[in-house]
Amino acid sequence: MTKAKFFEKITENERETYTALIEKLEALPDFQQKAAVWLIRNRNLAVYLCEKSKPLSPKEFQEKVSKAEQKKDYIYYALLFFRRTLQKNGSEYSVTDRKGHPEQKKKEMP
Hints:
The chain is mainly alpha-helical and 110 residues long.
């Protein structure tokens, strides 16, 4: 779907929100743009990988971020920031289906 078609299908309030988000993303350096876009596209995987990980100290976090930047590993960079967000805000993020609804737990067979 093109950007124009997408904007035709959403409300004015949503359009303002997405426009602001796009402007913020475009203002980031290329490396950080890639990290943010990867995180948006792979949110469920990020939740799965980060939700039960142990907290990082500020020093550990900065060392790992520096290493990710040096290696140009934008996926690891994105996961580090997402992990820190979970650490600060609690694990309020949940895995969702493609429409953004919380995934139903599958019932186990007896």
